[in-house]
C-alpha cells in the first residue's frame, strides 16, 4: 500500500462518486477504479458498495476512512514540521553564556528572538568561556556568549556583543580593614587571603590578573577557588578573604560585602557571541540575525 492509495480512497469516500473523485485527482476514472480495487484486494475487505446508480461506504470503509484521515493528518503535520525545521522556523537552540552576559542587554535579545520565533525552544545555560568553547567544538552547544580580553579563537565565527571596558573592583568583607578605602592598589592586598576562580575557567583573564599582581611585586595568597560568583561572594562575606571582580559584579547584591575600586589599569574581557563556522542549523543563523540587529541598533 502506498500513500497515494490512501489519498485516492479518501477522495472517493468524500465524493461517493468515482467520476467526481477522478476529476478532483486530475486523473481519468478507470485507473482510479482500478487503484481502489487493488487497495480492497490488498486489505482483504470491501470498502465501497457499488451499484449502477450509487457508491456507498461499507462499515469497514467508514472505519478505514476515519483511520486514513488520522494517518494523512499526521503525515501532513510531519511534513510541515520537517519543512519548518529546515527553514529554521521551529526546533531547539542550546545557548550558553558567561554570567556577565545576563547583566547586559543580552536577555533582551533572547526575548526578541522568542517573540520572533516562538516555536524555537531555547535551552539556556551559564558556563565559563573555556567550557562553552569546548562544548561548541564537541557539538554540545549551538551558540555561546563568551568573555575574552582579545578576540575569540579564529576556529569560530564571532560577533562583538559588548566591547565596553569594565573597571576592576576589590570585593571585601564589610568589616575588613580596607573596606572603607576610596580605592585600592595591588600592593594594598599583599599578604591578604584571596578567593578566585580557577584558571581553567577563564585562562586568559586569570593570566592577565595574576601577571598584573606579580608585576606590582605582589604574590597572591589564594586560599580558595570557586567557579560560581555567588559562592565567591558568600565566601567573601564570611570573612575568608577578598576577591577581584569587574564592575558588573556589584549588580549581584550580597549582604556583608563591599566593593572598592582597584586603581589599576587592566584590560577587561569583552563579550562576544560565537558559533561554529560550518553551522548548518538555520535557527542559529536566525538567532545571530536578531542579536546583530539589536547590536547595530545600539540596543
TrEMBL record:
Q: Which InterPro entries has this protein been placed in?
A: LysR_HTH_N, LysR_subst-bd, WH-like_DNA-bd_sf, WH_DNA-bd_sf
Looking up Pfam families in the UniProt record yields: HTH_1, LysR_substrate
Q: Say which domain of life the source belongs to.
A: Bacteria
Any one GO molecular-function label of the UniProt entry: DNA-binding transcription factor activity
Record keywords: DNA-binding, Transcription, Transcription regulation
Any one GO cellular component localisation term in the record: protein-DNA complex
Instruction: Give the SUPFAM superfamilies listed for this entry.
Output: Periplasmic binding protein-like II (SSF53850), Winged helix' DNA-binding domain (SSF46785)
UniProt-listed Gene3D superfamilies: Periplasmic binding protein-like II, Winged helix-like DNA-binding domain superfamily/Winged helix DNA-binding domain
Full protein name:
DNA-binding transcriptional LysR family regulator
